[in-house]
Each structure stands twice: as C-alpha cells, then as structure tokens.
Amino acid sequence: MVRKITDGLFSSIYFWVSVFILLCFFMAAWYVNNSVKKEAAVRADVMTTNVALGSIQIIVDMLDDYDKNLSLIKVLLEDNDEKDALQKIIEKIRALDPSISDITLEPLSKGQKYSSGVWREIYDKDNQLFFKFSLAVNQNERLCLLVNLLDFHKRVSESPIPSSAYITIINKGIYLYHPNEKKIGSAIRTQDMEYEKHLLSNPKDTIINTKSDYLDLPVYSYYKLHSSDNEQWLFTAHLPDLSISESIQKTANDFLVVSLLAIFSFLMVFGLGIYRWRKEAVRRRQIEQENMNLLLKSEQHKQTMISTELERLKSGLNPHFLFNSLGSLRVLISKDAEVAKYFAITLSNLYRYMLKQENQNIVTLVEELEFTENYINLQKIRFANKIVTEITLSEEILAYRILPISLQLLVENCIKHTKISDSEPLYIRIYAEGEFIVVANNYNPREQDDDYSGKGIDNLIKRYSILTKTKCTFKIQDGYYFAKIPLLS
User: Fold this and answer.
1) Scanning 113, 237, 308, 390, which has its CA 20 to 30 A from the CA of 91?
2) DSSP 9-51
3) Which parts pass through the membrane (predicted)?
4) CA–CA separation, 372 vs 367, rounded Å?
5) Nearby residues of 302 by Cβ (< 8 Å), 6 or more positions away
6) Edge-to-edge, what's the strand order for the sheet holding 426-433?
C-alpha cells in the first residue's frame, strides 16, 4: 500500500513540478543571499568612504581657512604697507577665530625659500605644540600664523559637525588632533606607526578593520594622506563597525520566511500610520489656526493699547501749550493791540497745526521745525530782543522724523524756566548730534513755581518710550542746559 502511494507520488507530474519550483526557489534564495552579501560589503565600503571623506574634508577645510586668512592678509599688505593697518587686520581675524594664537611678520631665514603656497609645520613653543602656517610676502619676510593644537581641538569640538565618525591627525608618530585632548601631542600606537610608514611610501586611501582604543569597539578606520607644500599629514576617520554585512546576510536568510508576514504587517502599520498622521495633521492644523487667531487678537489688542496710550499722552500737550500761549497773549494785549492781533492770528495758525497732527504719531522734522520757528517768533514779540536763537540743521537731518510738538515743547521749557532780561538774554541753540536733536540754552533758572508739574516733559519721555528704545536725555553742563530727543527713521 505504501509502495503504491510512493510510486504514485513519484510518477505524478505535479510532484516533479513542485520539486522543480522548490529547487528554483532555493536557487533563487542562494543567489539573492550571495548577491546581498556582496552588495552589503560594497555598500559598507561606500558608506564608510563617503562618511570618512566628508568628516575629513570638514577638518581639512578648517585648516584651509588659516591658509585663506594668510592669503587675505598678504593681499591687504600689498595694498597697504603700514604696520598699524596690518595690526588692525590681524585683530579682526583673531576676533573672528579665537583659535588663532598669534599672527606675526617674521624675516625669512638665510637660504630659506618658500613657494607661493602656504608652508605648514608643527612648532614647539614653551612646551606647547602649534600649527604654524607661513606664507612668503616678499623676498625677505613671511607671514606666520600660530594655532595652538588644544585651541584647534576646542574649535572642532564646538563646531556643529554632523558626522558619525571621529577624526585623528597624525604626523611623524604623534597625534596633532584627537577627540581626546589628552592624547594631542602624544605618541600614536605601534600599529598606526606601521600604517603611517606604509601610506607614506604608498599614498593610497585605505580602509582597515581594527579596534579603537578610544571607543573600545571594532571600527572601520579610513586612512587618507593629505599633502601640503612641505608636509604630509595622515588623516584617519574611525567609524563604528556595526556588522552591516552580517546583519544584511541574516536578513536575506530570513527573508523567505518572513517576507509575506512583513509585507502584511508593513501594510497594516503603514495604513494605520497614514490614518493617525492625517488625524494628527488635522488636529495640529486646528491648533495652529487657534494659536494664530490668539496671536492676531493679542497683536490687535497690543496695537490698540499703544494707540490709546499715545493718544492719552498727546492729549496732555494741547492744553499745556494753549495755557502758556494765552498767558503770553494776555500780556501783549495790554502793551500793543496790533502786535497782540498778529500774535492771536499766528497763534490760531499754530493751533491749527496742532489739530492737524492730532491723529499722527510722528511728523517730519522740517514740519516740526517750521512750527517751532513760528512759536519762537511769537515769543520774540513778547520778549523783544531778549531771546537769541541759532538753528543749524542740514537738509539730510530735516528728512528724519520726530514726535509732533516735541521740539516746540523743549523751546517752551527754555523760555518758561529761564530768567530773561536785557542784561541776561536767553540764548537758544538747536542742532543735530548723531541721531539726536539737541536744544541747548544758557542755564539761568527761575525760581520754580508752585504749580510746576513737569507734565510736558514726562509725556514726551513716555511717548518716545513707546516708539523707540533710545531714551531722551536732559543735563546741565558748563553753564548750559541740554535737552536731547531721538530722531526717528
């Protein structure tokens, strides 16, 4: 019975088709397995090479920056031979790169010749090692730039270098750079000395599997010889050996068993992820919209508050100005009716300007100056020749802006708080100083009135504090009172 079943099985066409398919399946698996293994090895080398070269190039670029600095100084020296100019250039470069210890101009040694390129060497000074970059500027002198190896280590460690490798620089059996700063200037391992000797005689990039004494892990070590005009430094990039080839090979062996399950699981996870992502995106969009609405409302509220505060402060100026002007008019009426009439007409024009600026937060300096000059003319009518003014403002300054009724307020304070007589006239000078308008007058103060409140100056300071961080200043110096208000762009 068993024999019949066996004979029937072996004689069945479906059995042999199944065997053939199974053999093809295993042959395909074997082929894929070997292909993946080879591809893994190639990709591991390519990845190691790309990461290593990228990391090494970053360090090389940092070293090349010093070459560029020397070349820049040389060009500037050729244009300007003054020593103080050189010192200023050096100070700027050192401020930009704190790793530079010194930049000096030294004489060439007798019989010493340099090419047009930068000469690199290791320099020992006071038991400290330095990179020394030299560049001949003429037949007798060279520029020398010193970089302490520890300062260079600090520059590299503080730089945002996106790399999964750590770099070492070797020259003549010592570490010029190592991520462990304690090893800088110390002797390298014996095996690295052998690699250095080999690469100096056969300058070809090399990848070696070894164990890192820094990470205490197996690593890929990529050795690259970097040559300058006179030096050959061995750069090494060390990448952790993540056993990529073995991992990929094992994955290939298990692929046939788990492929369908993996695809099914992937589709389910992917579908679920898409669903949750879309749901989260909608939720975030709603939150962002709500936040934007809140920010918009907050900004609108802030602008409303600023506008309200400005209007409140400005409202305190008009009664203050009108009160003082009417006082002056009252005095003039009793003296000269015609002059008082002119005074009243001019005052109405001034007040029309004030009403015109009611809804403006800033005005041009030329508008405010014209208003102030009219005000001064009225006060000169009142005080005859007891007020002397000097205004020195350029056309360029007149294009700036200031707060309305600010310049007039400062002039009014000069008149209000200074003793004015034939023997002691009031001298007022208006001029620009940097980004300020200055109103200066001879300091001869009256006795302060009981009703003096300082409201005008306080309002002026508050108005400026809303629109700019630059502060108004008021001081007494050398017998003069100086009031300075900022110019606005």
Assistant:
1) 113
2) HHT-HHHHHHHHHHHHHHHHHHHHHHHHHHHHHHHHHHHHHHH
3) 12-32, 255-275
4) 9
5) none
6) 387-392, 426-433, 436-442, 480-486, 473-477
Strand partners, 387: 426
Question: What tens digit of pLDDT does each residue of 450-474 get?
Answer: 545 567 788 888 888 888 889 999 9
Strand partners, 440: 429, 482
Shortest CA distance to 207 belongs to which of 10, 14, 48, 432?
Answer: 48
Task: Provide the pLDDT for residue 315.
Answer: 45
- In this prediction, residue 82 carries a pLDDT of 62
- Burial of residue 140 (number of CB atoms within 10 Å: 0-12, 13-18, 19+): exposed
Closest residue by Cα to residue 240 from 205, 209, 202, 200? 209
Token pair of 357, please? 């600026």
Cβ proximity of 143 and 74 under 8 Å:
yes
CB neighbour list of residue 474: distance below 8 Å, 6 or more residues apart: 457, 481, 482, 483, 484
Taking Cα atoms as reference points, which of 239, 197, 194 lies closest to residue 214?
Answer: 239
CA distance to 373, 394, 432, per residue, from 391 (Å): 9, 10, 9
Domains of the chain: 40-242 (3.30.450.20), 316-486 (3.30.565.10)
CA distances from 481 to 100, 362, 461 (A): 49, 25, 17
Q: What angle do CA 43, 44, 49 make, to 5 degrees?
A: 95
Determine how β-strand 100-107 pairs with β-strand 141-148: antiparallel
